Amino acid sequence: MPVALCLFASTPDITNLGFIVRVLTGSIDELPARAVEWGYDGIEFMPDPENVPEPAAMERALQAAGAVMPVVNSGRMGVQQLALLHADAGVRGRSMAAFKRMLDFAGAFRARVGLGIARGKGIPGAGREQMDAMAGEVFRELAEHAERTGATIMLEPADPGVTSYINTMDEAMEWVRHIASPAFSVMLDTYELAESEPSIEHGIRAGRGEARHIHLYDPSRWPPGVRTQTTLDWPQIFALLRETAFAGSASVVLVPEGAPAPAAHKTAAFLRDALGESKTARQ
Predict the structure, then answer these.
(1) How many Å apart are CA 46 and CA 97, to the nearest integer?
(2) pTM, 2 dp
(3) Is 214 within 8 Å of 250 (Cβ atoms)?
(4) Confidence of residue 283 (pLDDT cuts 50, 70, 90)
(5) Which residues in 32-136 belong to E strands, given as ranges?
(6) Is the alpha carbon torsion for 190, 192, 196, 202 positive or negative?
(7) pLDDT tens profile 159-193
(8) For residue range 22-48, what is the model confidence (pLDDT) as tens digits?
């Protein structure tokens, strides 16, 4: 499977936001080099949605490190009080502007932008019809913007503890068919697969032909290959990815506790062995 292995990465200010997973932190110049040093092809970058960096700075850092950035992660929107689907029109407007800034940034690299918790937790009291109508307007506008920039949006299902809206791959795939844009697709996440799908197999097969990116960590937020005991059947997951001809990129988080570098090296070696990959930069 041709898969670029990436680390979640962000600027140091993310440590003050209480983000749900531990990620690599550093300056724009440091992040790609550190990821390569730890055994990865590149980074899944999580910019501050209200202060997205200039693409040129990231391009210089990636080239210097021989790294790639196939994915831009919009997850910081969820902890910075931004939500694309929100009852307040002002919040929606700021959120749309923030997401478009990330699409502009990603477009410079022909990268993909995840749309997961950025959509918000759901609107209390809103019915499915209301949510669908709002989502349709938001997704279409963002897909049109993505087409202009050269980026691709990846709709990410999330478990009900994160959002009440779009929890399964079947629901996400319905939206892909409904929006019908080459710039609107889906992604996989093993936490969601374990928590929200009828089975992990069902979720992976539901995204067949569309999913080109996957987050790999178990429900305890630990990356694969570090602990001997895990709630996920990693061999089964890798076998299903091979069977469904998955190709693209995969990202992992840092261990939630302890020294990150040795564990990150261990995860990279585990994944390259499991996926049959040599270390090479892929976009």
Answers:
(1) 16
(2) 0.95
(3) yes
(4) very low
(5) 42-46, 68-73, 112-115
(6) negative
(7) 888 899 999 999 999 999 999 999 999 999 999 99
(8) 999 999 999 999 999 999 999 999 999
Architecture field, domain 3-275: Alpha-Beta Barrel (3.20)
| DSSP bridge partners of 53 | none
Q: Which residues have CB under 8 Å from 40's CB, separation 6+?
A: 5, 6, 7, 67, 264, 268
DSSP letter at 219 equals T
Nearest residue to 20 via CA among 168, 231, 221: 221
CA distances from 244 to 104, 182, 199, 202 (A): 31, 20, 15, 12
Q: Residue ranges per domain, the chain?
A: 3-275
CB proximity list for 232: less than 8 A, separation 6 or greater:
190, 194, 200, 218, 219, 224
Give the separation between CA 131 and CA 174, rounded to whole angstroms: 14
